[in-house]
Protein 1
Amino acid sequence: MTSTQRIELPDGVRTNGADPNPWWANSVVYQIYPRSFQDTNGDGIGDLKGITSRLDYLARLGVDVIWLSPVYKSPQDDNGYDIADYRQIDPMFGTMDDMDELLATAHRLGMKVVMDLVVNHTSDEHPWFQASRDANDPHADWYWWRPAKPGHEPGTPGAEPNHWGSYFGGSAWQYDAKRGEYYLHQFSKKQPDLNWENPEVRHAVYDMMNWWMDRGIDGFRMDVITLISKHLGPNGEMEDGEIGPEGYSNVYWFCEDGPRLDEFLQEMHREVFDGREGYLTVGEGTGIDGGPRDEFITDPRNRELDMLFVFTHLDIDHGEGGKWTPKPMRLTDLKRTMAAQQNAVASHGWASIFLDNHDQPRVVSRWGDTSTDELRVKSAKALALLAHLHRGTPYIYQGEELGMTNAGFTRLDQYRDLESINMYHQRVDEAKVESAEDMMAGLAAQSRDNARTPMQWDSTPYAGFTAADVPTQPWIEVNPNHTVINAEAEVADPDSVFAFYQRLIELRHTNPIVAAGDWKLLDPDDEQVYDFLRSLPEENPEERRSLLVIVNCGSTSAHIPHDAAELIHGAVDASRIVLSTTDPDMAAASLLLGKLSPWEGIVYQL
Ligand code: TEU
Ligand code: CA
C-alpha cells in the first residue's frame, strides 16, 4: 500500500466482467524468489526472516500483493519447485512461525501474500510418490506409471515407453526398479507428474490448499496448472511425437490444455475458493496463447482462475533452436503478441502483465540497453511504463524495480539452474547440436540464473544480501554491478528506476483509466515506437477519459508515428503530461516536435 491509497474503482467501470469489480483490479503484485532475496542467518541463502525484514521496503514501493516462490520442504532439485511436504516450511527458509510472522507483518502493512502451488508434480521424495512405487499401495495410481516398451529389457536405453523429452533434458520417463515400471516427469526426474485423473489426488490437493487458506494466506500462483490434464488416447494411449535433433519428441502436446482442465479448475474453485473473499488466483498458462482459452479460463462466470500468465510475448526472441539460440526481438512481434493477449480478455476475463520472472532473463538486458548506466536507467523506465500501462494486473519481479541486469556469467561452473546445466550437456556434449561457445552465449542471454542472482540492497561486498563477513559465499554469485545498482542508492534518488516504479504504481492505484480503460494498439507496423490508447467511455463530453501512451523502444531518437501524431495533431498542453520517463517539459517538447528522445516514454491525457 503506497502513501496514496488504492482507490475503489467507480461503479460502472468494467474490469473482468464481474460486478462488483474484484479487489485486485487495480493492484500490483511483487514476486519474491526467496533463495535470492535476503539472508539473515549467514548461510548465503535467502530466508523468511529476511523477507519479513524487507517488507517496509515493499510497502514503500507501494505494491499490494507479494507472491512467494516455493518455501516448502524440498530437496531443492529445482529450487523448491519439487515439493516433498506441502505443509512444512523447508528448514533452509525457516519455520512455520517465521511464515506466520511474515504473513502477519505483511497484513499489518496492508499487503497480501500469495503462495506458490506446485501440484502438477511433487518431489520424488514426497511420501505419496514413495508409496506409489508399490503397485499394491493405495497410492499406486497417484502418478503416471507405464511398462517398458514391449520387447525391451526394462531400465535399459531405448526401453522408455516413448521418446518424450523432459523440459530439463533427457527422457521424460524414469525407470523405477522397485515398481518395475517407468514414471512420467515433464520436468526433472525428481519431479514426477501427479495423476489428476485420480479424484483422490485432486481432493488431497484441495485439502492442502484449504489448509493454507485457513492459515490466512491470500491466494495462489499455480505452477504449470494448464499441464495437469493429459490428452490420453481412448485406451489411455500416449501418442509419441516427431523425434527432434536432440533425440526426443515433445511432451507438450500430451499435457498442454488437456480435455479435463476446465472440469478440474472448476472443481478446485468449488472445493477451495467458493465462499472465500479477498484472495487472488493466477495460473501459469504454459501452452495457452492470447485467445479464447485465455478468456474462458479467466472469465469470472466460469469460476476457474482470476488470471493467467500467458508467455507468447516472451517467446518472440527464440530462434530455430528455441530459447538457446536467441534472435533479436522485433517490436512488431511484441505488439502482435501483446495485442492478442489484451484483446482476448477485452470484454470478459483478465490479463497478467509481466516481462520478468524467475524463469526469464532480465528484460532490461534482454530488450533494453545496458551499454551505459544512463541508457540502462532510461530503458528500464521505458519498458516499465510500456508494461504497466497495459490493461491487467502488473507483476514486478524482485530487482526489476531497480533495473537489475543479467548475471554476465562466462563459465559453466557459475551456473546453478538444472535446466541450464542439463541443456548445456545435452546440446553440446550428447546431441552435439551446438558448439560450447554458442551454448555459453545462449546461456548468457537466456539462462534462468540471470534472474536469480542475489537481490542488490547496497554496495557492500555481498550487496547486503548477506552480511559481508559471513564465512559462506551466497549460493549464487552477486552481480558485481551492485556497487552502482542497489536499493539503498535508488530509494534515495528521486530520478531512480525505483522512484519511477513508485509513480507507476501510484498511477494504477489512483487513475481508473489505467486500471480499467479499454486498450487499443496504434501504429502496429512501427518497429521502434510502441504506442496505444487507454480509454473509458465518456460520461460527459467535458470529461477527458483517454490516455495516449507512447514509448520509444530504441537507443536513437524516433519520430512520433502516424496514429499518435494524428491524436496529438500539434496541440500540446504540458499540464496534460500524466507521466513521462523524461522531465515533463522535455516530454511536451518531444510531443510538439513529433520526435522522441532515446527510450522516452510519455503518458498524455487526450
Ligand atoms: O515453469 C514452467 C515453465 O514453463 C518453465 O520451466 C519454462 O518452460 C522454462 O523455464 C523455460 O525454458 C514452472 C516454474 O516457474 C519453474 O521455475 C519450474 O522449474 C517449473 O515450472 C517446474 O515446476
Ligand atoms: Ca539464510
Protein 2
Amino acid sequence: MGQWDRFLAPYKQAVDELKIKFKGMRGQFETENTNSPIEFVTGRVKPLASIYDKTLEKGIAFEPSEKLAHELQDIAGLRMMCQFVSDIETVVGLLRQRNDLRIVEEKDYISQEKQSGYRSYHVIVEYPVQTINGEQLILAEIQIRTLAMNFWASIEHSLNYKYKGIFPEEIKLRLQRAAEAAFQLDEEMSKIRDEIQEAQAYFSEYKESQNTHFPTDREGEQTNR
Ligand code: 0O2
Ligand code: 0O2
C-alpha cells in the first residue's frame, strides 16, 4: 500500500461512517413521519489532484504529513442538502448536539456570501476514527446548503474547471445574478413552506397507503388459483 493510500484510509473511513450516520438522521425523521430537514447527503475524499492544487495554493509540501492534515480541513468532505434555508439552521443544531464529533469551526457563507455568489454553511468537525492502531482524530468539512444553492455551486464549480478560476467578466456577472436568483427562489419557497410540506406529507401518506394495498406474493398466488 502506498503512503498516500495509508494516509487517506482513515479519511475514507470517516466519510463512509459520517455518510451512514447522516443518512440515518434522515431515516429517523421519516420513521417519525416528520418532515426531514435533510433532503440528501453526499460525501467524498478529496482527490489527490485537488490536494496537490491546494498545497500549491497554500505553499505547503505535497506529502502526507501532520501539517497537511491540519491545513487542509476538507480532505474528508460531506454535503447535506436541505429543501429550505431554515432547515440549514436545524441541521447545524443537530450537529451541535452530537457527541460523536466535535465542532471546531463554523463558516456562514449564507448571511455573508462569497464574492463569487457562493452560499453555503460550512462546519469543520473533528471526528474520531477507530483504527487497528488506535483512535485517530480526523478533520472533516460538512457543507450544508439548500438544493438551489447546491445547483448554483455545482454549475459554477464545473465552469471554474473550464475557465481555471478566471471567468470572463460577462460570465462572472451572470453567475452573480444567477446566485441572487437562486436565493430569491429559496426565499419564495420559504414563504410557502407550510403549503409545500403539507402536500409532501399528503403525498408520502398516499404512497404508503398504495404500498399497503399491493397484494403480497402469497395473496397474489391465492388470487391466481
Ligand atoms: P437513492 O436511492 O438514490 O436516493 P457511494 O456511491 O457508495 O459513495 P452514494 O451515497 O451512493 O455513495 O453516493 P453519493 O454520491 O455520496 O450520494 C449520492 C446520493 O445523493 C444518491 O442517493 C443520490 O440519489 C442522491 N442525490 C443526488 N442528487 C440528488 C437530488 O437532487 N435529490 C435527491 N433527493 N437526492 C439526490 P443514494 O443514497 O444512493 O440513494
Ligand atoms: P472542492 O473541489 O469542492 O474540494 P481553504 O481554501 O479550504 O483552505 P477557505 O477558502 O476558507 O479555505 O475554504 P472555504 O472557502 O471555507 O471552503 C472551500 C470549499 O467551499 C471549496 O473547496 C468548495 O467546495 C466550496 N466553495 C468555496 N467557495 C466557492 C465558490 O465560490 N464556488 C463554489 N462552487 N464552491 C466554493 P475547494 O477545495 O475549493 O473545492
